[in-house]
Amino acid sequence: MATPSSASSPAALALPSGISLDALLAELRRLSWGAADILRAYGRGEQPPYGFPRALSVEEGGEGPVSAADLAVNRWLLDGLGQAFPGADWTLLSEETAREQLTAGEPLAAEWLWILDPLDGTKDFLQGTGEYAVHLALAHRGVPVLGVVLLPEMEQLWLGITEALAGEPGQAWCENRTGERTPVRFSSRRQPGELVLVASRNHRDDRLERLVAALELGDTKAIGSVGGKVATILRGETDLYVSLSGKSAPKDWDMAAPHAVLEAAGGAFTHADGRPLTYNTGDVRQAGCLIASHGPAHAELCARAAAAMATIDPGFLV
Could you tell me which of 114, 53, 153, 68 has the C-alpha nearest to residue 257? Predict the structure, then answer.
């Protein structure tokens, strides 16, 4: 695979303030592996690196390792991007800063927006399953064009540069700490009846169970974290992920980075009616029936899901 370059296509978007794609990727690698070290230290009850304090127990007046890890990685990412690219014409939004930054119904006034999730899969981090992730996505006018999904316990760093930023075509791959690359390996399964679904371990209800039954798929695998789920599609272990929710829906920071990587790899991530996922709309919830897949059967899966939901929950906006 050719080395990505900001000059790969005349039609490619120009990053703000003359920032080169190569320099940006180098910094994202440094920040990602640093985040992995921070999270793994907190998860093991060890002293974290980079001067972050150890986690205090609730008895000591703290909020435990999950909150400590979340806040530490949040600070690591925000400070890192700020120091590496001072004055860059973009805005940084994370799950941890959203409450202070966002006003309901009002998008942020940002052409370029970073959407960060310092710890996706909090329950899995707490339970020690290892199925948690770090998400970094760069969106342009509400469309994610660059995504990073870090799986600390697997030592996997997934990067995706969509066609809009890379030019033709999009590029996605996985790296380890030494920079060794592994390509995306979508499965060869094509027919809906043989496709493997990756589902949430912690967020399932009767409607989702009925929808999955209606899709008449093959096997099902349960994995935590949206980033972790999409990574199983990228590795060819599974083929699709379905999110079905309303008021308590996943948020922009849950979806943006996995969305960008999957799209850059040639997969698809849309609403069941084919509408694209959009970000920074004034409502951070990614509600509806959302389907991520490796691509070949995506249109048929969406059609089946939309038809099924019309019976399962009439009036539900997919």
Answer: 114
Q: What would the pLDDT profile of 247-268 be if each residue is shown by its tens digit?
A: 789 999 999 999 999 999 999 9
CATH of domain 16-183: 3.30.540.10
For the question of whether the overall pTM of this predicted structure is more than 0.90, the answer is: yes
**For residue 213, how far is the Cα from the chain centroid?**
26
Three-state DSSP class for residue 108: coil
Q: Where are the domains of the chain?
A: 16-183, 192-312
| CATH entry, 192-312, from 3.40.50.720, 3.40.1190.10, 3.40.190.80, 1.50.10.100 | 3.40.190.80
Q: Measuring CA to CA, which residue among 285, 284, 309 is closest to residue 93?
A: 284
Nearest Cα neighbor of 259 from 169, 157, 145 is 145
What is the rounded CA–CA span in Å between residue 257 and residue 259? 5
